[in-house]
Amino acid sequence: MPSAVAVFWSTILPALIGAVVAFLLALANQWISDRRTYRRRWDRDVFDVVSELIRTARALMHLATPEAAAPDRDEKIRSTLGDVRIATGRVLLVANPSLSEAAVDLQSALYRLATESLEPDGEERWREPYDAVYAQISSLVAATRGQLDLEPISRVHNA
């Protein structure tokens, strides 16, 4: 009959080691799963708030063009600027520093565009700030892709 020490070394100890290894692997798997879930949730939030900011920026860009002349155009521009402030604030809540800077820079460019388009002679001066807004949207997209760990793209087309 084998001794108790031999039984321990040949059966109980390997089973105990196997149980500890299985526990550690299960723990690591759960940690990885939790990190993935957490990351997906924040990625979705970043995507949603940046999309809203870009949508609002494009709405303001449209209103700032001379072709968008309407009786209540000035009021719509002011209202959309309020929406830009709200959308930028939402981005700042979930963004890393480079994305935050890009969002604030876009907001500044939109303010300049709105100011130029609200001036009495702004119809002649809207093109330069309009192009600056496009450049800031490209910077915002690049910063967003950086925060989402996506590959950078060489150029965002003005579509």
Structure description:
By secondary structure, this protein is an all-alpha fold. It has a domain of 107 residues: Talin, central domain (A middle domain of Talin 1, Up-down Bundle), CATH 1.20.1420. The protein is 79% helix and 0% strand. The protein has 4 helices and no strands. Helix 1 runs parallel beside helix 3. The radius of gyration is 27 Å and the shape is rod-shaped. The termini are far apart. The relative contact order is 0.10.
Q: What's the quick description here?
A:
The chain is mainly α. The protein is 79% helix and 0% strand.
CATH topology of the domain at 41-147: A middle domain of Talin 1
Question: What top-tier CATH class of the domain at 41-147 fits best?
Answer: Mainly Alpha
Computed over alpha carbons, the radius of gyration is: 27 Å
Main beta-sheet annotation: none
Find the structural class using helix and strand composition: mainly alpha
**Gross morphology:** rod-shaped
> Would you tell me the overall average pLDDT?
84
